[in-house]
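[recover] target loaded
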């Protein structure tokens, strides 16, 4: 997929590479409390996706995986601290993926979109398992299907 990024401007490339971090912060922070469990799960997921994803998009996750934890924390620190303001910024940023998907190969865009949906689901479930019962709060459920991003 990295060769597909050559079709994008710098801010669009940055958006693609930041998408897992934005999703992590949006969903993990939906209850206004981003936990260490959720952060660790996000870091693990990015790393796992470097070898578990389709060959078409593994290379993007490899690029994201480099210094991901540091980068994720920098993004968290740069965002507004209030829940509503932070969500507004993240929703706006993730909505930008719609334009990106129109510029890259449809099949690869669809694979990346599905990968991001899976990523969102894993983050939503990261801290919600209590006594073997999977719990996702209503705010996380609102975002887990990434309603701001249209299927390519």
């Amino acid at each position: 997929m990295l060769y597909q990024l050559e079709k994008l401007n710098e801010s669009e490339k940055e958006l693609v590479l930041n998408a897992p971090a934005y999703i992590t912060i949006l969903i993990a922070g939906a209850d206004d409390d981003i936990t260490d469990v959720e952060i660790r799960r996000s870091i693990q997921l990015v790393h796992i996706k470097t070898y578990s994803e389709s060959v078409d998009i593994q290379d993007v996750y490899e690029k994201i995986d480099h210094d991901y934890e540091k980068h994720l924390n920098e993004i968290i620190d740069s965002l507004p601290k209030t829940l509503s303001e932070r969500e507004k910024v993240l929703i706006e940023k993730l909505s930008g993926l719609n334009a990106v998907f129109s510029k890259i190969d449809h099949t690869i865009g669809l694979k990346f979109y599905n990968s991001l949906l899976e990523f969102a689901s894993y983050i939503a479930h990261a801290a919600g398992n209590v006594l073997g019962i999977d719990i996702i709060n209503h705010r996380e459920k609102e975002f887990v299907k990434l309603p701001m991003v249209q299927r390519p």
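[recover] notes: The first strand starts at residue 129 and ends at 130.
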